[in-house]
Amino acid sequence: MIKEAIQYIVGLGNTRIEKVGDQVYSTQPIHKVSIPTPNTIQVRSLSGLVEYLQSGFDGEEQLMIHVESPTDVSVFSSFNRDFNRKALIEAKAMIPGYSFERWYDAEEFNIKLQSVFVKNEDRDIMLKVVGNIKEEDVRTVGDNGVSQSVTAKVGVATVGQVEVPNPVALKPYRTFVEVDQPESDFIFRMQNGPRCALFEADGGAWKVQAMRNIKDYLQFALQEEFNAGKLVIIA
Questions:
Q1: What's the pTM value of the predicted model, to 2 decimals?
Q2: At 158, is the pLDDT very low, low, confident or very high (cuts 50, 70, 90)?
Q3: Max CA-CA distance within the chain?
Q4: What percent of the chain has pLDDT over 90?
Q5: Sign of CA dihedral 77, 78, 80, 82
Q6: Is 116 exposed, middle or buried (0-12, 13-18, 19+ CB in 10 A)?
């Protein structure tokens, strides 16, 4: 194989290739001519990725879908002669902005709860607590290290001590909107101001669930292609 390559290259010009011991040397620089690969298509949803794969636009070769993270999915071919793969399309999720471990004032936190989190029981409880805190009495806070209580409105014209739920099970938008958002535990804390913050408390387990949800969605949406052996998926 090396001998054939040497004869072919020497035949092109004055380049000489010699073997010294186990090493092969050339008298001139030699550059590899690589097989070109296409630019990767960028989409922002799983549905766009599915539509591309169903179209067969770039041929019918077997492809692999890689769920890289809760927000990134890529599709590529097998490697070519140069051991490079064609990265055909990549989906990156559009998710609303929310910073965990950051303190928000009560009004901004209230808005974030309604716009960045899927409606569930714990979210609604938190909205009632945050929306009814009496600012002039917020310094009257009970804290045993795990749960807190604050002075808040508990009726139309009454004020009382309200237990702040902790931990809370919430479903923030953290992956593609086409799939179910994973529910996970958060530590909910409050400070004078009033200010509120959420701290993740599941060790990142939600990422594994989100990737599993993406894989299930793609397997269902591309069932015909999977059954025909055109696609392989890993997560």
A1: 0.77
A2: very low
A3: 97
A4: 51
A5: positive
A6: middle
